[in-house]
Amino acid sequence: MDSATSSPSSQLAPPTEGASLVQVLLILRRRWRLLVIVWAATVAAVGIYTFTTKRLYRPQASLEIRPETPLVGGDSNDPALMASRMMWENYYRTQQAILTSPTLLEATFKALPEAIRLQYKGLSDPMKVFTDKLDIEVLRTSFILKVGFVDEDRDAATQVVNTLVTLYLEDANRRLRELKSGAAEVLSKETLPAIRARVDETDKALQGFQTETGFTDFEEHYKSLVEARRRFDSRYTEIRLQRVKVRAELDALSSYGAEGVSGLFNPAFHSTTTLQPLAQERARIASDLGKIEKLYKERHPAVQELHEQLRMVEDKIREAIRGTLKALETDLAEVEAEEKALKSEIVTVETGMADAARRLNQFKRLDSELVSAKELYNAYLKKHGETTATSGSSLGSVRVVDHATIPIIPFKPKIFLNIALAAAVGLLLGIGTMFVTEQLDDRIASPREIEVFVGLDVIATIPKLSTSEQAGPNPVLLDVTSELPEFEAFRGLRAELITRLEPVKGAKLVCVLSALQSEGKSTVTANLAKVLSLEGRRVLIFDADLRRPSQRKLLQSRAGAGLEQVLRGEATLEEGVQPTRIPGVDVLGAHQGITGAAELVGTVRLEQALAWARQRYDYILIDSAPVNLVSESSLVARNADLTLLIVRQGTSRGAAVAARKRLASMGVSVAGAVLNGSSYRGGEYGYYYSSYYAPQSTGKTE
Description:
Layout: H1 21-52, E1 60-65, H2 79-86, H3 88-99, H4 102-111, H5 114-117, H6 126-132, E2 134-139, E3 144-149, H7 154-213, H8 218-259, H9 267-270, H10 275-295, H11 301-390, E4 398-402, H12 415-440, H13 447-454, E5 458-463, H14 484-500, E6 508-514, H15 521-533, E7 539-543, H16 563-568, H17 573-576, E8 578-579, E9 585-588, H18 597-601, H19 604-614, E10 619-623, H20 632-637, E11 642-648, H21 653-665, E12 672-678, H22 681-684, H23 686-692
């Protein structure tokens, strides 16, 4: 097909695999009645069920199960109080079990009026039926129990709930009084005396330990030992420093006496009072001696005299050093003796501290046991007083929040809720049924469906021909008795073809195909040829459906050669082409269905026949076989300038899509689709009908 004959607007894009919004809207438009029927049936069924079902009522009473708070305020960290709070969840479940206990339910059943009990008379197990109607709703976050009873008689159900709650509270109060009386007796006779004996025993042990050790305040004694240890450590450090200092001075002065002037410059030498003036005198004589030795010789009397003076001063220094050394040795001995004594004292204090720490720990343990025993005794004593004070009171942990009242609205069925759910479910079921039905029945009903689901532009819509209820395999020609809209449909198709084929020079070759048989392609081909010939064009109908040929039925005389003989080379094209009953229209077709049609179409003679026809006719219309049923149709369509796909109303969308895909895979571009046998007369052809069948004019102008 020539590219010039296919414009972007003439062919739509192939539809996607998933359903688009337009496809959904078309399905809804086509199946909306089914949706309404399913929705209405669902709502009606639920409504009938709701209004015919027996109405059940559920009166209920609300009970609050809350922790008991002591009358005497206690410590929030009291172990007994904390333990009771931890056990509260178990207490809540216990009360729930008591409400459904067989004993309480039997007592409630017996307490009911005779008229109510007669309703259960004759049943095989009245108590089971009665128990099954009991409904307890648990609200753990707020510790609320809602006791309900489901029954048809709302007055009787209300009386049952109130009777059950009353008997439950009476039984709970009785058990509470018995429990508290027994607990108070056990506390006074057994628990409190045992705990008091433990307190006395612990106090006696503590006093005996204090008498044995001779201390009453062990912490103060331990602190005094720690302070003494600190003082001894401080003095011991000072003595050690003093010993080091004396030892250093002694070593410095001893080196002077042994080595002469080597210790003269030691700080210990100058710190001694007796040695300081002698050191100055020695320094002066040494200075004078140095000056004289520069002037005189060594044997000079002045030099000898200064040497003598220097010797005498050094003798005095040594004498003073020996005295000082004796004093330093005495001091060193005293310091070492004191250091040894302090070390011994420190050892003694450390031993005392260890013993004091041990006794302090033992004292604290005994004191802690005594305090714990006293606290436990006080806690149980407080519990005993509280139990005794409240032994005659009612149960404080259970309170009736709301008594049961006669309900107005039934518990089951819920009319408005059921109707609302039925409307929603019916809508979903209707939508599901609509799409399932659409999948099971995908017949094409309108041009819009071809555009949306098949992906082809509809270039013409042919109404169902009035001259025949079913076209069948034979072409049906329009005649003078045909309705005006039928002619107008083919004229519109003619206008579309002429417009689209304007770029093609010379003869125009149009291939008419269908997805399946009995789509009306032969009828469309014959009538299209007729309206083309009305404009003075020479038209050749090339009947390429060699398996089921039908166009030769238009001939005035069926004698002569057929297309099969031309393709086999047994006759010429001039012998095969014959005129029809339609002026200006000739037919080249086979006499009857033949075998080997695919091979005949694939011969070179077919191309030669089409080339010969282009030289002699204005339009060549190829009536080919159904695309989905035979293999040669796609090959024939490759030679055409323009290809049309005929789709009869009611044809499966899947078949039309398969045909389009098959042609596309063979390189054949379909210009558009023609919807044949359409029943949309009142909509699309209303204008023609109203004008064609208008009453005769009365002579008045409008």
